[in-house]
Amino acid sequence: MTLLASMASGEEITVCDDEVRSRYSHLEKMTDLVAVWEVALSDGVHKIEFEHGTTSGKRVVYVDGKEEIRREWMFKLVGKETFTVGATKTKAAINIDAVSGFAYEYTLEINGKSLKQYIENRLKTTNTWILNLGGTDYRIVLEKDTMDVWCNGQKMETAGEFVEDGTETHFTIADHSCYIKAVSSGKRKEGIIHTLIVDNREIPEAVE
């Protein structure tokens, strides 16, 4: 994902619209907001915002509304800012590159990959389900390489069990019995199929 900012009309930035301003009060002070990304990690979906003052060289990085980096005066307008995101301390970086004249390009990297590459890789290595139990929304994520299960930002206590046609990973959410069943698809390209069962009901997988 690439976002462009231009100095064609002074310091005016058009990336921040009224809807974003109303949802994030700290944006009222952000006169140099140039890029906003949403990144889905195992512990939740995180919002990353970046301010870049193309006169002063100021750089400010916000993660979920919290200021992570602030540099007021930077002689060099291009470069890279590195930080971490979420409970898993996932490594992230924002690259600042000059395009032409006073226009700049901002790209986000997650774990050393471009955002597009990271999303493509994540689709292969995780499964995500979103469901409502007793009026509360839950986002459940399975990390297939470790079989770790996350629910609403918390790593769950799980118990693995071998069954006749595969394995089951059991856990509990708000007194509801849950397990993720892993069975072979019988096809090399598809590999293992993971299914979430809550109170004996199969939950459809979500696409983020």
UniProtKB/TrEMBL annotation:
Any Pfam family hit: FAIM1
Q: Supply the InterPro entries for this chain.
A: FAIM1, FAIM1_dom_sf
Q: Which domain of life is it from?
A: Eukaryota
Subcellular location, record wording: Cytoplasm
Q: What are the UniProt keywords, alphabetically? A: Apoptosis, Cytoplasm
**Matching Gene3D superfamilies:** 2.40.128.180
What GO biological process terms are annotated to this protein in UniProt? apoptotic process; negative regulation of extrinsic apoptotic signaling pathway via death domain receptors
Alphabetical GO CC annotations of the entry are: cytoplasm
Q: Its function?
A: Plays a role as an inducible effector molecule that mediates Fas resistance produced by surface Ig engagement in B cells.
The UniProt family comment states: Belongs to the FAIM1 family.
Looking up PANTHER family in the UniProt record yields: FAS APOPTOTIC INHIBITORY MOLECULE 1, FAS APOPTOTIC INHIBITORY MOLECULE FAIM
Protein name stated in the entry = Fas apoptotic inhibitory molecule 1
Source organism per UniProt: Lamprotornis superbus
The root-end lineage is: Eukaryota, Metazoa, Chordata, Craniata, Vertebrata
